[in-house]
């Protein structure tokens, strides 16, 4: 037969939880972590990440970045060369297309290495302040984008097909690169100038 056992009185008194809020006399976990320095954030994290510290080395060097950009522009040059040849219904000479793209690669590499901004000191103007360098960079590519775009519009409307096939791919690549290098406001301004040149000169895209 089952025996009835007396239940012992619990050692912990049962009561409702205190919902009045934390006791100000007792330290919280945040206060304990702050006392041990676990919440101290380095000052470098609060700075603008777009401006790397002077002692911080860039993740990729100027030459490596220039090679990456040059390869991309060379592929764009090859694509535009093929499209121009297709437009004029010219027989595709792949050896010549690849040769012209290979010749354009070192030119792109030199230009990008010299003119593309990088955290390391610039090649042409290493002693100028960064703010002045940015203004000069934007001004140079603003003028370059307008010149390249206007010239591309001019040759495609006035020159014969052979001259267009030779000059349109490199000039188009330079135009695209110049626009990419610009800030949004400068890029939109350069495109508006090219559109104005197109309208005032009675040119067309066809």
Summarize this structure briefly:
It is built from seven helices and no strands. With 206 residues, it is mainly α. It has a domain at 62-119 and 129-200.
Helix content: 55-70%
Order of helices and strands: HHHHHHH
Largest sheet: none
Radius of gyration: 33 Å
- The N- to C-terminal Cα distance equals 105 Å
Task: Please identify the structural class as seen in this structure.
Answer: mainly alpha
Q: List low-confidence stretches.
A: 44-55
pLDDT averaged over residues: 78
Count of separate DSSP helical elements: 7
Total beta-strand segments? 0
Beta-strand fraction estimate: under 5%
Write down the overall geometry.
Answer: elongated
Write structural notes for this entry.
α3 runs antiparallel to α4, α5 runs antiparallel to α6 (161-181) and α5 runs parallel beside α7 (184-200). The chain has a domain at 62-119 and 129-200. The protein is mainly α and 206 residues long. The chain starts with 28 loop residues before the first helix and ends in a 6-residue tail after the last helix. It is elongated and about 100 Å long. It has helices at residues 29-35, 43-46, 62-87, 94-115, 130-158, 161-181, 184-200.
Name some characteristics of this structure:
206 residues, mainly alpha, 7 helices, elongated, DUF7719, DUF7719 domain-containing protein, transmembrane
Note the topology.
Layout: H1 29-35, H2 43-46, H3 62-87, H4 94-115, H5 130-158, H6 161-181, H7 184-200
């Amino acid at each position: 037969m089952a025996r009835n056992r007396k239940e012992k009185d619990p050692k912990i008194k049962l009561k409702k939880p205190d919902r009045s809020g934390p006791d100000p006399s007792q330290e919280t976990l945040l206060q304990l972590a702050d006392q041990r320095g676990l919440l101290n954030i380095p000052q470098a994290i609060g700075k603008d990440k777009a401006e790397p510290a002077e002692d911080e080395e860039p993740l990729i060097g100027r030459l490596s970045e220039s090679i990456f950009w040059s390869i991309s522009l060379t592929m764009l040059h090859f694509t535009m060369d093929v499209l121009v040849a297709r437009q004029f219904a010219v027989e595709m000479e792949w050896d010549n297309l690849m040769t012209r793209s290979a010749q354009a690669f070192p030119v792109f590499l030199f230009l990008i290495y010299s003119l593309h901004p990088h955290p390391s000191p610039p090649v042409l103007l290493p002693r100028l302040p960064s703010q002045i360098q940015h203004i000069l960079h934007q001004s140079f590519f603003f003028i370059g984008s307008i010149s390249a775009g206007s010239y591309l519009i001019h040759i495609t409307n006035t020159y014969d097909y052979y001259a267009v096939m030779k000059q349109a791919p490199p000039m188009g690549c330079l135009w695209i690169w110049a626009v990419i290098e610009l800030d949004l406001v400068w890029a939109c301004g350069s495109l508006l100038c090219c559109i104005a040149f197109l309208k005032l000169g009675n040119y067309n895209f066809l």
